[in-house]
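Example for tutorial group B:
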């Protein structure tokens, strides 16, 4: 029972490769379905999640963290699905959302630029020049998004276990390479690894629930024991704890809540001085 994430630029045969790998291995193939599940679970319009993943941040959003608050929702939905195993995910940012799970096989597909342009021309029924311009714009958007939200360069080979350049390699050969790699012992899902994903998924669900009020909250979880840290000092620590407990009251499985919240209110003795 393994998990594969596949990252690529647009028009790079990524969807076809992911579907073929999933079919060959008997896995489920996921992409935009995760957005629909996140939208339903957290009652957020699907279009907002779509824009959060696919559009680069505007100047205003770089200061207001506009799109960033939707990422925990998508991460929670993805991790909850990955906890079931046997999945190939080829949506944007898969490599970022599962960086903490070493057993996940993270793939990067590199396609020849001329092949990408030809694919874009065919899909959009546009000229060579327009296809080239559209791809350049999409690449800039993805790069800007990854650098701003993930603090990562999506082309950085260190983010992946395997980088495959399709120049001179057929889609079928690429599929074979991926299937052979995921069969290695390193990528087999152990009970420990699945437990790790369960804990990450639970923490992500809690983070997603808090994000509208406490977007900077750092959440970790282990077997239902949840630790929440707020990096910014708060004026009312007790009130904050009560509010967080109320926000999380509908989430089953929380055995204990631990808080790390600093007060920005001076002690009365210090105030008298």
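The residue assignment follows.
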């Amino acid at each position: 029972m393994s998990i594969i994430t596949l990252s690529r630029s647009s028009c790079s045969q990524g969807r076809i490769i992911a579907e073929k790998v999933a079919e060959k291995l008997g896995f489920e193939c996921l992409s935009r379905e995760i957005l629909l599940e996140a939208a339903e679970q957290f009652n957020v319009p699907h279009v907002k999640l779509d824009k959060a993943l696919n559009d680069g941040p505007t100047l205003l959003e770089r200061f207001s963290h506009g799109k960033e608050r939707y990422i925990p929702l998508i991460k929670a939905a993805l991790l909850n699905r990955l906890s079931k195993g046997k999945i190939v995910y080829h949506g944007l940012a898969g490599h970022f959302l599962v960086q903490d799970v070493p057993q996940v096989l993270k793939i990067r597909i590199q396609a020849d630029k001329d092949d990408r342009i030809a694919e874009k021309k065919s899909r959009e029924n546009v000229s060579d020049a327009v296809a080239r311009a559209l791809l350049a714009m999409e690449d800039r958007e993805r790069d800007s998004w990854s650098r701003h939200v993930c603090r990562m360069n999506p082309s950085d080979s260190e983010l992946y276990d395997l980088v495959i350049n399709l120049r001179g390699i057929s889609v079928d050969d690429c599929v074979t390479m991926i299937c052979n790699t995921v069969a290695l012992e390193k990528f087999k899902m152990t009970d420990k690894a699945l437990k790790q994903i369960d804990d990450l998924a639970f923490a992500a669900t809690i983070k997603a629930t808090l994000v509208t009020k406490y977007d900077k909250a750092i959440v970790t979880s282990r077997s239902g024991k949840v630790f929440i840290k707020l990096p910014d000092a708060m004026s009312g620590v007790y009130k904050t704890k009560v509010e967080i407990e109320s926000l999380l009251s509908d989430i089953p499985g929380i055995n204990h809540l631990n808080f790390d919240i600093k007060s920005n209110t001076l002690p009365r003795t210090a105030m008298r001085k």
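The first helix runs from residue 14 to 25. Compare this with the pattern of hydrophobic and polar residues in the output above.
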